[in-house]
Write a structure and sequence with these properties.
This protein has 763 residues and is an alpha/beta fold. The protein is built from 27 helices and 24 strands. It binds glutamine and zinc ion (ZN).
Length: 763
Amino acid sequence: MSEIRNWVTGFARIGEKRELKKALESYWRGESTFDEVESVSRELKERHWSYQNRAGIDAISVNDFSLYDQTLDMVEILGLVPDRFKDIEDRVERYFAMARGDATHTAMEMTKWFNTNYHYIVPELKSGMEYKIDISKIEDEYRAAKKLGVEPKVNIIGPLTFLANARRVDGPNEDALTLYTQILPAYIALFEKLSSLGSRVVVQVDEPILVTDRVVELSLLLKESYNRLCEAAENLDIYVVTYFNHAKEAVAQLVQTPVKGIGIDFVYGSENIEILDMISASNKVLVAGVVDGRNIWISDIESKLKLLETISSKVSKERLIISTSCSLLHVPYSISYEKRLSDDIKSWLAFGLEKLDELSLITKIFFDGADSLNSKEALSYARNREASQSRRESKLIHDAAVQSRMESIEGLKKSRRSFEERIKIQHEKFAYAPLCTTTIGSFPQTQEVRAVRRDFKNGKISKSEYVDRMKGFIKECVKIQESIGLEVLVHGEFERNDMVEYFGEQLKGVAFSENGWVQSYGSRCVKPPIIYGDVSRPEPMTLFWSTYAQSLTKKPMKGMLTGPVTILNWSFVRDDQPRSKTCFQIALAIRDEVDDLQRAGIKMIQVDEAAFKEGYPLRAADRPAYEKFALESFWITTGVAEDDTQIHTHMCYSDFNDIIDTIEAMDADVISIETARSGNTLLKVFKEHGYKKEIGPGVYDIHSPRIPSVEELQKQILALLEVLPARQLWINPDCGLKTRRWEEVIPSLENMVKAVKKVRASL
Ligand code: GLN
Ligand code: ZN
């Protein structure tokens, strides 16, 4: 096999025009056959291989493609399909039933892939499961790649990551690591089979779990499993690859095993520099992740070359493979589809295909010297230097007004006057009863609502027509809420298609791509905003709609804002300053909105932080720093509120056990959370903690179309009252209602209000 100087950890698969998404969804709707899905898949794989091949990537991943999820594919490869799906004989049907459920099977659980926005399927394991290795998918891809003249490397999710991410379903202890001794033989059998693919087979074993704190309990298993896996077959070149953080503890173990190479991330694990000596003392190949695989900024090639010089002062060049920091699954395809972004902004961006070119340019310069570049490459190199320079200096990025405001930010990083004082004033002002009823913000986004937004965007209707139509939706929504008898109203969020995009589009320093889709799970993609420069708010963003809504009712109208931490966590964030600084800038912008709203008489304001918990770092050691800036950002945003302005926040989850102190410190007057699906056991942590502020635990699950009955809602409220006193509780659904239909929303809310009346009468 030829010498490998570079590779990419993995490539995206959904397709630059989201071809796979479209093929899958059409197949699921029954509008096309599975043959069509297969032919699209084949085309995508071949296209992606040849992109990499043409760009000058030496070893190219196979088995990074998946029809739904790679972890789910591992379940199939290892033959660990849960019993509950075994009645489905057709393989394809069974695969999608595991992923999405069907009429008679609930889907397997899905959860976040480490600290990314990608979600994987959680394997369900139990003791005594019999494995059955099937490498046909890998083999097909391997052969097809070879045929194209590509040098394949086989991507596999490693046994430790697979197990740590799995769930044990046969007993009280859900930790699947307890099944280690049963799963290792399956992996050994898998590796034996892989050895039949060729005379030398390169295997990349992904073990991102090794960059988390779980590495401590894994360290013994780590050595043993890789000793054993390496014994499985002599012709396998095994590279254990980590990403998303440093892998200090793991590398100390891995150098003692016979693996051929170790992959570490130098972008998100800068501490990895400290373990170079350890690698150098071993005879391992170092796969150095230097091109950011999960953010979209160009690499500053000069500084990447410097980094590589530092690395190669310890680990010799012959033992280096240059790589992306992680799979390119987490970035969009190519900026060539972007027609609306300015040339400046585009020159600062590198999506997947552009990253391939960067990697190959870096490889050439590093190994062969800048003199070896042909004229086209030399031009790219010069452009990269220019663009890196312009990123450092451009007025589009560096806004003097924002920076001068940032100088006084310290004084704003504090919470308001004490809650006890505030809440008294607020109760006097609003005089709401205990168990006050409200909703989380959005109401059904009907076809009609979407059409009006779309028509306005496409210039089909005028601004004034758009405003009239939106006002119509708001008016109707307010009327419905009043007739249901809700006590604190909302305007319904009809003008928003997404809680982050709506704000992002109005903020300076934030851009949107046209085609920057990234897979979130299965066929679902998101298009995150791009925060490229100093952020500010040129004009009020929500004031118009909120004040109009308030003018229609005497009841309090809640202003509805998305919080700074959530905007940050759901965006591509600039990497030329600390994330905290960007977050503070967003916080200042939202703070201005809070102030405008309260001055206009909107005295209840909800600042949604749906992604607050999502942003928690992988390592406990990094958490205090995150919590500090996240908290401070929330304070900057809400600190401007007067005592009689009531600050609400909403979070889309319920498990606050490990972050309750931080939630308390956020110091919102009212927090609404998602407890409907988990019962009120999770609410208890608020009680045990002595949490004094007001809480709206969602009383029914908006993710289901089912209409909860008065009796069951009453029961639910009574159960809440066993944990917390009525004065502390608000009653609301567990999230926004935008995905539901009016026919579901109205009776559900009516029942909710009736249930509250009954409970109040019984108090
Ligand atoms: N206010 C938003 C809504 O109701 C909150 C959405 C969310 O938490 N994800 O839609
Ligand atoms: Zn929510």
